[in-house]
Amino acid sequence: MALGFFSRLKQGLSRSTQKLGGGITGIFTKRKLDDEALEELEDLLITADMGPAVAERIIESFRSSRFGTEVTDEEIRTTLANEIATILEPVAKPFEPDPAHKPHVVLVVGVNGVGKTTTIGKMARFFTEEGKKVMMVAGDTFRAAAVEQLQIWGERTGCPVIAGPPGADAAGLAFEALKRGKAEGADLLFVDTAGRLHNKSALMEELAKIIRVMRKFDETAPHSVLLVLDATTGQNAVEQVRVFRELVNVTGLVVTKLDGSARGGIVVALADQFGLPVHAVGVGEQAEDLRPFSAVDYARGLVGVGETA
After folding, report:
1. Which of 15, 44, 117, 122 is the most buried (most CB within 10 A)?
2. Is 111 annotated as a binding residue?
């Protein structure tokens, strides 16, 4: 993680931290960890969007280890951060392109408005700064704003953007981009896609066509399918994962807009329910506010515990 990102992460999670940390302080001001306190804590975890399964598991851990002892809010916060980090650790996997694939094709999916295009632009910048040659496909062809936005990111990052006229065939664009990427020795090819989930069958057909057409040139493509989720939607993000896993083989998650809500706990629920890699989280508008996901930093930021050494 880049220097200073913990501070940005903590700032971005401040609304979640106020809700969770403030609730803990309200419950635990030097009192015994009894049934009543545990019940209040469980309710707090559920309302923080961690979901009942996670809340129950954490409460049982508290019950077996600290039940009946007198605790402070700081002790509860530290222990809670450790419990959350344990849940998040198996899914905290920064995205790494496979050098065996040139280009490594990344299909980026998600409903409209979650930040797919911005995520692609930020990831393109990140990997360009790492010395990778990156290309992008403006595959959300029915939304002129999405195409223009990706072209702006292309100008900022110096990455080629393959785009067509409004309503162009996204699969054809992806195919041409893949051919060009191979010819030019690109390391990464990000493919933006439509997100009109209200017409699920049409979206399924479009995504299937993009994959089918790309495989005519490279039968292993796409090599990754990243699902972008908006944290402000809370538990609705869980349903989006279920739906998109029916449409495509989702290989990892990126969670955006954590700074816009008090629902940072949703990342914990997603980790527990699906076990999909969480590659990155977004906590602000700046390109550097999308960063590789760290379980410990996220857990500590979420509950308001200081930075690790």
Report:
1. 117
2. yes
